[in-house]
Amino acid sequence: MATEAEAAGGAHNVAMPQLDFSTYANQIFWMVVALVAIYLIVTRLVVPRIGGVLAERSDTINRDIAAAEELKRKAVAAETAYNKALADARAEAAKIVAAAKADIQKDLDAATARADAQIMAKAAESEKRIADIRDHALESVTEVARDTAGEIVAHFGGSVDAGAVGDAVAARLKG
Amino acid sequence: MANGEAQSGLTLHPLEQFGVHPLFGGHEVHWYTITNQTLWLAIGVLCVFALFVVAANARALVPGRGQNAAELIYSFIHNMVRDVTGEDALPYFPFILTLFLFVFFANTLSLIPMSFAVTSHVAVTGILAITVFLSVTLLGFFKHGTHFLDLFWVRSAPFPMRFVLAPIELISYFVRPVSHSIRLAGNMMAGHAVIEVFAGFATILVISPISIIAITAMYGLEVLVAVVQAYIFTILTCVYLKDAMHPSH
After folding, report:
1. pLDDT tens figures, B179-212
2. B203 lies in a domain?
């Protein structure tokens, strides 16, 4: 290797092979051939294939993401609908409760009024009877007082004038 | 090679490895002669074919190992063209990918011991850079006509400053192919030459452990340089292309 290199170096007598202009035509020719070969590989094979695969993959990913977003949107819509249904049901229930409460209140009011009326009637009756009883009681008292007064007078030996005793008792009771 | 040098004492020929020799005998290098460089160019083309056509043949929706690597490089360059140059530059993507694959495989294959560093030759990188320079310039004029010259007439600068900036912009524009090519060739050549120098020192027993460690470290660095230089060459092409597509600053 060394001898070969030295021989070649000696043949051109150039310290830096990079500046050996005799090889330039060769270098440039083969370099252009290599570049054209790589360019053909790139344009004919690499770009259609790998570019296609990458495009396909990004399409797939984008499609999947779009599908996922669509599903998420649907889920959100379903949740909204569910919440709305729940709120509606709550409102309906509240309405029913209010109506039931009003009904019960009405019934209660009516029953209370009826009961009040009955109580009033009973009270009035009772009062009448109490008044009767009181009247009777007064009459009885008058009678007892008259009898007692007559007896007392009789006991003292007086003649009992029923009419006079009755008037005296009545006068006393009034007084 | 090390043996030969050991026998002849410490003689370093770090640049010998870059010599272009006919592969099948003879000393003359005609334009059609198949040389060691031709061999490694061909191996580079075969590597492109092997990675992008054979390994990525399955075209599966969920990629395998080879297909994944091919797709990684493909989309890396695709995104680079799109991000640096813009959506409207995607028709030029095959050219950029070709350029990247050529430089990338030339750089990385040159790291195989006893191989040949194609991209260490200014003839190669120079033609690449000049091709990029000419096509980008022609494309600029073709797309924008004389408006392409807005590239040198910095409208965002104050008016008197534009006269100062114009020659600077012009010079920097024409220096582009030089820096573009020398950067790549210089990086490749320097790294390989340094490794060769360390290899030469390895024939001295006392220094050889240090020398071998240094070669190992340099090799790691060179792997990085090979990939990064391919990346830089490509992204600079994208930047130049962007100037042609959108010349106004």
Report:
1. 999 999 999 999 999 998 888 888 888 888 999 9
2. yes
Confidence of residue A14 (pLDDT cuts 50, 70, 90): low
Q: Per the structure block, which two tokens stand in for A33?
A: 């051939």
Angle, helix B122-144 to helix B208-245, in steps of 10 degrees:
20
Complex confidence, ipTM: 0.87
Q: Write the pLDDT tens digit of every residue in A96-153.
A: 999 999 999 999 999 999 999 999 999 999 999 999 998 888 888 888 888 888 888 8
Stretch (H or E) spanning A12: helix A2-12
Name chain A contacts of B127, Cβ cutoff 8 Å. 28, 31-32
| Pick among A31, A62, A63 to test the B interface (most B CBs inside 10 A) | A31
Asked if B111 contacts B222 with a C-beta cutoff of 8 angstroms, the reply is yes
Nearest Cα of chain A lies from the Cα of B147 at a distance, in angstroms, of 31
Exposure string for B167-203, b = 16+ CB within 10 A, e = fewer? eebeeebeebbeebbebbbbbbbebbbbbbbbbbbbb
- Mean residue pLDDT of chain B comes to 88
Taking an 8 Å cut-off on Cβ atoms, the answer to whether A2 and B4 are in contact is: yes
Measure the CA–CA gap between B105 and B100, rounded to whole angstroms: 8
Closest CA to A23 of B37, B26, B40, B14: B37
Which residues partner with B22 through β-bridges? B35
**CA-angle at B170, arms to B168 and B176, nearest 5°:** 100
Kindly calculate the radius of gyration of chain B based on its CA atoms and give it in whole angstroms.
22
- Cβ contacts (< 8 Å) between B124 and chain A: which residues? 27-28, 31
Task: Answer yes or no: is B23 within a domain.
Answer: no
Where in the sequence is the domain holding B194, given as residue range(s)?
Answer: 2-15+32-245
Min Cα distance B216 → chain A (Å) is: 23
**Interatomic CA distance for residues A2 and A11, integer angstroms:** 14
- For residue B166, how many other CB atoms are within 10 A of its CB? 16
Q: How many domains does chain B have?
A: 1
Whole-number Å distance between alpha carbons of A122 and B211: 130
